[in-house]
C-alpha cells in the first residue's frame, strides 16, 4: 500500500515538472530576477534621456475593463489612435477600481506604469482625482492627464497649480442633449428613464443636459410639456459592482416594466441595451440610448436610438505630442464637437451616432436639432429653476461654464435624487 | 514526532509544487509562459525596495487578520466575519479621526486614540457574531457572513451619506485626513514602520498566548472538545467570547492600519479582502502561529506581484488569487493524504 502511495507521489512530481517544462517554477527564478538591477527600474531613471529612436511611452489607467464597450474602451482606443499617429507606445492597466484591485491605490499603480517606462500617465476616471493629484505632486517629472477633472481649471472651484497636470474633458452636454432629443422623439409614453452612475457635478450636468434636450424636442413636436416624465435612478458607481451598487440591469428592467419606453444610459457601459432587446422580443417595443463608446449600439442595434460618444483621440494626441516635444502646458481643456463634421475622428471631441431604432422621420428631426445646436441654440438658457424650485437662470440668462460644470442640483421637472442622502 | 513534522513539511512542499503545476497548466493553456509569469510576479514583489514596501503594506493587515484568526480557530470557531471586523475597525478609526478633526490635541495622541477606537470597533463587531453564536445558536459562519454584508452596506451608507464630501459623494471615499493624522511612513515609500512593528508584535503576542499560557491551553481545549472542556470546568462560552473579542480587536487593528497608514480616509473596499485572504493563510499554515509570517508575506507578495501580469503580459492579475486558492486546496488535500499515510504506516 505504501509502495502504491510512493508511486503516486513520484508520478505527481513527474506531472508537475512536465508541466513546467518551459520554465521551472518560482524557486529557481530567484537568480534570474535578482540580476535585474533595481536602480534601472526606479521612477527617477525614466528621466534619463532615451535615444532618439525610442518611441514616447505613455501609460493609461482605466477604471473599467479596456473592452467594456463604453467609457474605458473609448479611452483605450484613443490610446491606440495616439500610438498610430505619433508612433508612441502605450502601456495600460485596466480595472483600476476599489473592487477589482483591492489593496492598491491608483497613484501606486501609476508608479508601476512609470517603472515600465511611461513618461506620461492618463488617469481616466473621476474616481482617481485625488490619486492623480497625489501622483502628479510626487512625480514632478512625469506628465499627468486627469480626464474629466477640474484641478487645473483656473476658473474652477478646486483650482490648484500643478504644472505637470492637464485636465481633459469633452463637452458631452451636447451629446446628451441630442440623446435626450432622440429619446423624446421616439417615446410614445412620454416617460424617459435615465440610468445614472453616482451623483456628482459631472453626472448632474449630463443628466440635466439629456433632460433639456428631451424637453426641447418633446415640446417642439407639439406635445404637452407637462406630460413628459424624466426620471433618473442612480446605481452608485460608474458600473455595476456586485455588493456595492444597484444592478443597472434591474434598474433598466424596472424602468421598462413601469411604462418608461426609453432608457438613456449614463453609466460606463450600456447594459440597458440587451435589456431593451429582451423586452422588445417579448412583445413590448422599447428603446435604449447608449453612452460613451462609438460602437456601443452594436450589442443590440435594433433597439438602439443612438450613442453620444467621446472621441478622446484628438485631444490626447495634442497633449501627448506636447509632452514629447517639450511644449507642454498645464491647462484645462473642455472641448466641444466639431459642428462642421460631428463625427470626425480627427477633430471632434464628442459625437453622436444614430441607431437603427431611430425612424427616418425622427432622424430628420434630430438632424434639424443638431443643426440648430450648431447654429448657436443654447438650451442652457433661462428661465430654468433647480429641482427644488430655486431660480437658477433668469429669463434669457445664459449659463456660464462654471454654472454648467458645477450644477448644484437636478433641474425642475426632473425626478430623482439631486444629491446622495 | 520528528518524523511526522518532517513528513508534514514534505507534504506541504508537494502541495506547493502541485499548485504551481496547476497554475502553469492554466498559463500554458492560454499560450503564456509560466516561467515569465512567475518571474514577473517575483520581480514585481521583491525586485526593488519600493515594490517590497508595497508588499509589506499588504502584509501588515494580512498578518494582523491571520493573528486574530489563529485565536478563533484555536477555539474551534470559523470566524468568517473577520472581513466585517476589519471594516468596522476602519469605520471606528475614521469616526475617531473625524471627531478630533478640529481638536488641538497632539496628533500622536489622536492617532493612538483612533487606532484604539479601531480595535474596539472590530471587537464589538466580533462580539455580535459571538453573541449570536452563544446566545442565539446562530452558527458563526452564517452570523459572520451576514454581518460582513451589513458592514459593507454601512461603509457605503457613510461614504455616500453622513460622511460624504461637500456636495459630491464619491466611490473614492471620504475626504482625505490631514497629513499629521497619518502614521509616519518611511521616506519615499508607502510603508509605515509603526504599522509593521504593530503587526509583528501582534503575531508574537498571539504566538505566546497560544503556546505558552494557561489561557491558550484552555482555549485549545474548548476548540478540541467543547463538551469535555465544559465538563473539566472551563467556562466554555466565555472562552468562545474571549476568542471573538481578541480576533475582532486584531481585525479592527488591521482596519485601523488601512485608514491610518494606507488610505488616510474611509474607502468603500477598505478591508481589501484581507479578511478572507487571512482565512486562507490560517488554513494553509494549519493554524500554527509560527508559520504566519512567511506565509502571509508570500500571499502579500503574490497580491502585489500579480499587478505586473496585466501590465507586462496582458494577463489577468486574478491569477494570483487562483494560485492562492489552489494552494489552500492542495494543502488541505495533501494533509488529508498524509493523515491516511501515517495511519497506514502505524497499522503495518
Notes on the protein architecture:
- The complex is a heterodimer of chains A (421) and B (348).
- Chain A is of the alpha/beta class.
- Chain A has 2 domains: 52-170, Rossmann fold (3-Layer(aba) Sandwich), CATH 3.40.50.2300; 172-309 and 351-415, Rossmann fold, CATH 3.40.50.2300.
- Chain A has helices at 2-19, 30-34, 71-86, 106-115, 129-138, 172-186, 201-220, 248-257, 272-281, 313-325, 360-374, 401-405, and strands at 57-61, 89-93, 120-123, 143-147, 165-170, 191-196, 229-234, 262-265, 287-289, 304-310, 332-335, 350-354, 384-385, 391-393, 414-415.
- In chain A, α3 packs across α10 (313-325).
- The termini of chain A are far apart.
- Chain B is mainly α and 348 residues long.
- Chain B is 74% helix and 0% strand.
- Chain B is globular, with a radius of gyration of 21 Å.
- Chain B starts with a helix and ends with a helix.
- The model of chain B has no long low-confidence stretch (mean pLDDT 91).
- The chains are: A alpha/beta (421), B mainly alpha (348).
Q: In which range does the helix fraction of chain A lie?
A: 25-40%
Unreliable spans of chain B are none
Write down the oligomeric state. heterodimer
How many helices of chain B? The count is 14
- What separation lies between the terminal Cα atoms of chain A? 68 Å
Gyration radius over CA of chain B: 21 Å
The name CATH uses for the topology of the largest domain in chain A is Rossmann fold
Strand order of the largest sheet of chain A: 12-10-9-8-6-7-15
Please provide the count of β strands of chain B: 0
Break the fold down into its secondary structure elements and pairings.
The complex is a heterodimer of chains A (421) and B (348).
Chain A: H1 2-19, H2 30-34, E1 57-61, H3 71-86, E2 89-93, H4 106-115, E3 120-123, H5 129-138, E4 143-147, E5 165-170, H6 172-186, E6 191-196, H7 201-220, E7 229-234, H8 248-257, E8 262-265, H9 272-281, E9 287-289, E10 304-310, H10 313-325, E11 332-335, E12 350-354, H11 360-374, E13 384-385, E14 391-393, H12 401-405, E15 414-415
Parallel strand pairs in A: 1-2, 1-3, 3-4, 4-5, 5-11, 6-7, 6-8, 7-15, 8-9, 9-10
Antiparallel strand pairs in A: 10-12, 13-14
Chain B: H1 2-29, H2 34-46, H3 49-74, H4 82-99, H5 107-134, H6 140-160, H7 193-212, H8 214-224, H9 226-231, H10 236-263, H11 274-284, H12 292-305, H13 308-313, H14 319-347
Helix pairs in contact in B: 1-14, 2-3, 2-12, 3-7, 3-10, 3-11, 3-12, 4-5, 4-6, 4-10, 4-11, 5-6, 5-10, 7-8, 11-12, 11-14, 12-14
Amino acid at each position: 500500500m505504501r509502495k502504491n502511495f510512493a508511486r503516486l507521489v513520484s508520478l505527481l512530481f513527474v506531472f508537475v515538472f512536465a508541466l513546467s517544462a518551459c520554465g521551472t517554477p518560482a524557486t529557481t527564478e530567484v537568480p534570474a530576477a535578482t540580476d535585474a538591477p533595481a536602480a534601472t527600474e526606479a521612477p527617477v531613471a525614466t528621466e534619463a534621456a532615451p535615444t532618439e529612436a525610442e518611441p514616447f511611452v505613455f501609460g493609461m489607467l482605466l477604471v473599467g475593463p479596456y473592452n467594456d464597450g463604453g467609457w474605458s474602451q473609448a479611452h483605450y482606443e484613443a490610446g491606440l489612435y495616439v500610438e498610430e499617429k505619433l508612433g508612441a507606445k502605450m502601456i495600460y492597466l485596466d480595472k483600476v477600481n476599489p473592487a477589482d484591485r483591492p489593496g492598491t491605490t491608483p497613484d501606486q499603480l501609476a508608479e508601476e506604469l512609470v517603472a515600465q517606462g511611461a513618461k506620461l500617465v492618463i488617469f481616466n476616471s473621476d474616481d482617481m482625482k485625488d490619486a492623480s493629484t497625489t501622483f502628479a505632486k510626487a512625480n514632478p517629472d512625469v506628465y499627468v492627464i486627469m480626464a474629466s477633472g477640474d484641478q487645473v481649471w483656473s476658473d474652477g472651484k478646486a483650482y490648484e497649480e500643478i504644472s505637470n497636470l492637464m485636465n481633459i474633458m469633452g463637452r458631452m452636454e451636447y451629446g446628451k442633449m441630442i440623446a435626450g432629443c432622440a429619446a423624446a422623439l421616439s417615446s410614445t409614453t412620454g416617460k424617459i428613464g435615465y440610468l445614472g452612475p453616482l451623483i456628482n457635478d459631472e453626472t448632474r450636468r449630463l443628466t440635466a443636459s439629456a433632460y433639456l434636450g428631451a424637453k426641447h424636442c418633446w415640446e417642439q413636436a407639439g406635445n404637452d410639456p407637462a406630460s413628459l416624465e424624466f426620471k433618473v435612478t442612480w446605481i452608485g458607481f460608474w458600473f455595476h459592482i456586485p455588493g456595492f451598487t444597484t444592478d443597472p440591469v434591474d434598474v433598466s428592467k424596472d424602468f421598462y416594466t413601469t411604462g418608461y419606453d426609453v432608457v438613456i444610459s449614463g453609466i460606463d457601459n450600456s447594459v440597458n441595451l440587451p435589456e431593451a432587446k429582451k423586452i422588445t422580443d417579448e412583445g413590448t417595443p422599447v428603446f435604449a440610448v447608449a453612452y460613451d463608446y462609438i460602437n456601443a449600439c452594436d450589442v443590440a442595434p435594433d433597439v438602439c436610438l443612438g450613442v453620444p460618444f467621446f472621441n478622446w483621440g484628438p485631444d490626447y494626441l495634442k497633449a501627448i505630442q506636447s509632452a514629447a516635444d517639450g511644449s507642454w502646458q498645464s491647462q484645462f481643456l473642455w472641448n466641444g464637437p466639431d459642428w462642421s463634421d460631428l463625427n470626425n475622428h480627427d477633430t471632434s471631441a464628442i459625437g453622436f451616432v444614430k441607431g437603427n431604432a431611430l425612424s427616418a422621420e425622427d432622424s430628420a428631426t434630430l438632424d434639424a436639432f443638431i443643426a440648430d445646436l450648431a447654429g448657436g441654440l443654447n438650451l442652457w438658457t433661462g428661465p430654468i429653476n433647480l429641482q427644488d424650485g430655486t431660480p437658477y437662470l433668469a429669463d434669457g440668462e445664459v449659463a456660464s461654464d462654471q454654472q454648467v460644470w458645477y450644477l448644484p442640483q437636478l433641474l425642475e421637472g426632473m425626478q430623482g435624487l439631486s444629491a446622495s442622502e | 514526532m520528528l518524523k511526522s513534522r518532517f513528513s508534514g513539511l514534505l507534504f506541504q512542499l508537494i502541495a506547493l509544487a502541485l499548485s504551481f503545476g496547476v497554475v502553469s497548466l492554466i498559463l500554458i493553456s492560454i499560450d503564456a509562459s509560466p516561467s515569465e509569469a512567475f518571474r514577473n510576479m517575483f520581480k514585481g514583489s521583491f525586485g526593488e525596495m519600493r515594490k517590497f514596501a508595497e508588499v509589506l503594506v499588504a502584509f501588515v493587515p494580512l498578518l494582523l487578520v491571520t493573528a486574530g484568526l489563529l485565536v478563533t480557530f484555536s477555539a474551534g470557531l470559523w470566524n468568517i466575519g473577520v472581513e466585517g471586523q476589519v471594516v468596522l475597525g476602519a469605520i471606528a478609526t475614521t469616526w475617531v479621526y473625524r471627531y478630533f478633526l478640529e481638536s488641538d490635541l497632539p496628533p500622536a495622541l489622536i492617532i493612538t486614540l483612533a487606532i484604539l477606537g479601531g480595535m474596539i470597533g472590530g471587537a464589538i463587531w466580533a462580539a455580535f457574531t459571538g453573541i449570536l453564536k452563544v446566545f442565539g445558536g446562530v452558527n458563526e459562519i452564517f452570523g459572520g457572513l451576514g454581518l460582513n454584508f451589513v458592514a459593507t452596506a454601512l461603509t457605503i451608507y457613510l461614504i455616500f451619506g453622513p460622511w460624504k464630501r461637500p456636495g459630491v459623494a464619491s466611490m473614492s471615499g471620504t475626504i482625505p485626513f490631514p497629513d499629521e493624522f497619518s502614521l509616519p511612513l518611511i521616506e519615499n515609500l508607502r510603508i509605515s514602520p509603526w504599522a509593521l512593528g504593530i503587526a509583528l508584535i501582534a503575531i508574537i503576542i498571539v504566538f505566546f498566548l497560544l503556546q505558552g499560557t494557561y489561557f491558550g491551553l484552555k482555549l485549545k481545549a474548548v476548540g478540541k472538545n467543547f463538551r469535555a472542556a465544559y465538563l473539566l470546568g472551563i467556562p466554555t462560552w466565555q472562552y468562545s467570547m474571549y476568542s471573538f473579542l481578541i480576533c475582532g480587536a486584531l481585525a479592527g487593528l488591521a482596519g485601523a492600519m488601512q485608514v491610518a497608514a494606507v488610505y488616510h480616509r474611509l474607502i468603500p473596499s477598505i478591508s481589501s479582502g484581507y479578511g478572507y485572504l487571512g482565512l486562507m493563510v490560517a488554513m494553509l499554515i494549519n493554524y500554527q502561529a509560527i508559520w504566519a509570517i512567511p506565509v502571509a508575506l508570500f500571499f502579500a507578495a503574490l497580491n502585489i506581484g500579480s499587478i505586473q501580469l496585466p501590465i507586462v503580459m496582458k494577463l489577468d492579475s486574478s491569477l494570483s488569487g487562483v494560485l492562492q486558492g489552489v494552494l489552500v486546496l492542495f494543502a488541505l488535500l495533501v494533509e488529508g493524504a498524509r493523515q491516511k499515510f501515517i495511519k497506514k504506516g502505524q497499522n503495518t
